[in-house]
Amino acid sequence: MAETTSALPGARFDGAVLIEEAGLRGMITLKGDLAATRLHSAATGVAGVDFPGQGEANCVGEHGLCWMAPDELLILVPYARAAEDSAAIATALAGTHHLVTNVSDARVIFTAAGPAAREVLAKLTPADLHPDSFRPGQFRRTRLAQAPAAYWMRDAETFEIIAFRSMAAYVFDLLVGAANPAAPVGRY
Amino acid sequence: MLILRCPYCGIDADETELTPGGEAHITRAGPGSSDAEFEAYLFLRENPKGVHFERWRHSYGCGKWFHAARCTATNEVFGTYSAQVTAPPKELCQKISGKRPGWLSRWLS
Prior knowledge:
The complex is a heterodimer of chains A (188) and B (109). Chain A is 21% helix and 35% strand. Chain A has 188 residues and is of the alpha+beta class. Chain A folds into 2 domains: 12-23 and 106-178, Gyrase A, domain 2 (2-Layer Sandwich), CATH 3.30.1360; 26-105, Alpha-Beta Plaits, CATH 3.30.70. A 6-stranded antiparallel beta sheet of chain A has the order 1-2-8-11-10-9. In chain A, strands 4-5-6-3-7 form a 5-stranded antiparallel beta sheet, with helices on one face. The model of chain A has no long low-confidence stretch (mean pLDDT 96). Chain B has a single domain (3-108), classed as Folate-binding fold (2-Layer Sandwich), CATH 3.30.2270. Chain B is built from 2 helices and 6 strands. Chain B has helices spanning 35-42, 90-99; strands spanning 3-5, 12-14, 19-23, 51-57, 65-71, 77-81. The termini of chain B are far apart. Chains A and B meet through strand 9 of A and strand 2 of B.
């Protein structure tokens, strides 16, 4: 059987911040009533983290829960567990109105790490990334230049960015351009 | 540049993260309607200088449709509200009346 690879294996750029492709990650889209107890326990049971509030992401290691929309959750798990975990959620929610899909192979994850990470991202997104407005734990679906993307902060200097796999090269090139060490902004 | 607060995810979304959906609260003229009613549904739109109710979609975010009230002359945003209503909420209309005394809309005749 063919070996599965991520979109841009080993892609890396060390500029104003360190841009890296984070490799394969299991991602499960779960739609349904986010207020339902059964959905809560199914999602937290798989991810092993607290259920996020509106606009939040709770991520520990390769696991995480991200609030995508009032009726949509993104569950992060290790890649090898994605198929098994989505089946487990489908079993746990059987009979309730929901939708669960393994979207691991449709996405790419990048990390942008360094003290200038906010600035690099702010060059590409219309969202307000001022430290008062966007803090670790918050999750934002928006765009990077022309590509839909979502990101959150792992800590005060590290962003994790999700984009569509088909746009991986475009998003990586954007990040590399924005992280050009010759073009600092000094805003934040 | 407009910034609209999505009533579903609470995010202040930039205009470029949104897709405009035209005038709000249009009633669909279905089968059995007259030609004049169908024409009005399909083609006839308000084009005010002032208060306007619009539909927007948070397309780069949660993907939900919502409503917004905006002044077309100054781009002042009076508020945003749920898509699951057929007319602007009363509080919003009162707020607009405070800022634009005597404003008119075909929804408040």
